[in-house]
């Protein structure tokens, strides 16, 4: 790893995410939403896979880069619209990360590697993409699942079991073991539901 180039790319990612007009509180401090998410991704990656490659570290930091620029409302509010939005997001994040990496001095080979990971290509086949997906899901469970639950009081238990199972199925067995070994903070109110979902 060329530390200077790596730090330049991370700084560029953070600068881009610091422009987020959406704010979120954490530990009594207000953060730009996607900057906080990026920092949580890096923190989880260091906890879960400190041996991760440079490409995975960069991808984790850039995974949601400038997400607010591609709002869900730009697409039809149905299943197909949701899928189009997700596909568009993956491409937007990958292209944005690649452009900033180029400016930081990375070669095309490393840029393409990171774009593959951020674009979630070859999940379950590419170990680097899978490692980032594990980090994404662990961050969601620890930091965002409870808030997501609060936004959807209309969801019944069956719907929640489906959501938890979908998240769980995207994770590797290593990530399953990490979560169940108490290495992440499970949202206390949802623990019975989570356990019921993964054992069912």
Name its key features.
DUF4202, two-stranded antiparallel sheet, 9 helices, globular, Glutamyl-tRNA synthetase, single chain, mainly alpha
Main sheet properties: 2 strands, antiparallel
Strand ordering within the main sheet: 1-2
Number of domains: 1
Give the overall form. Answer: globular
Spatial gap, N to C terminus: 43 Å
Total number of strands: 2
| Secondary structure category | mainly alpha
Low-confidence segments, given as residue ranges, are none
Q: What is the residue-mean pLDDT, rounded to a whole number?
A: 93
- Count every helix, treating DSSP H or I runs of 4 or more residues as helices: 9
Share of helix, binned = 55-70%
What does this protein look like?
With 200 residues, this protein is mainly alpha-helical. It has one domain. Helix content is 66%, strand content 4%. It contains nine helices and two strands. It has helices spanning 3-17, 33-48, 54-62, 79-104, 108-118, 127-151, 157-170, 173-180, 191-199; strands spanning 23-26, 29-32. Strands 1-2 form a two-stranded antiparallel ribbon. Strand 1 and strand 2 form a beta hairpin. Helix 1 runs parallel beside helix 3 (54-62), helix 3 packs parallel to helix 6 and helix 7 (157-170) packs across helix 9 (191-199). The radius of gyration is 17 Å and the shape is globular. The chain starts with a helix and ends with a helix.
Secondary structure topology:
Layout: H1 3-17, E1 23-26, E2 29-32, H2 33-48, H3 54-62, H4 79-104, H5 108-118, H6 127-151, H7 157-170, H8 173-180, H9 191-199
Antiparallel strand pairs: 1-2
């Amino acid at each position: 790893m060329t530390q200077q180039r790596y730090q330049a790319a991370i700084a560029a990612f953070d600068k881009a995410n610091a422009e987020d007009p959406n704010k979120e509180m954490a530990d009594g401090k207000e953060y730009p939403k996607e900057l906080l998410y990026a920092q949580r991704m890096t923190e989880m990656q260091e906890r879960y896979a400190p041996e991760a490659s440079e490409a995975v570290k960069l991808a984790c930091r850039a995974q949601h880069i400038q997400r607010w620029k591609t709002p869900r409302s730009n697409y039809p509010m149905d299943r197909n619209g949701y899928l189009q939005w997700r596909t568009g997001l993956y491409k937007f994040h990958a292209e944005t990360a690649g452009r900033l990496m180029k400016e930081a001095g990375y070669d095309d080979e490393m840029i393409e590697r990171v774009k593959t990971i951020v674009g979630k290509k070859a999940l379950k086949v590419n170990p680097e993409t899978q490692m980032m997906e594990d980090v994404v899901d662990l961050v969601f469970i620890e930091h965002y699942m409870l808030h997501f639950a609060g936004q959807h009081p209309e969801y019944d238990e069956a719907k929640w079991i489906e959501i938890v199972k979908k998240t769980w199925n995207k994770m590797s067995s290593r990530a399953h073991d990490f979560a169940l070994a108490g290495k992440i903070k499970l949202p206390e109110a949802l623990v019975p539901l989570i356990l019921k979902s993964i054992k069912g």
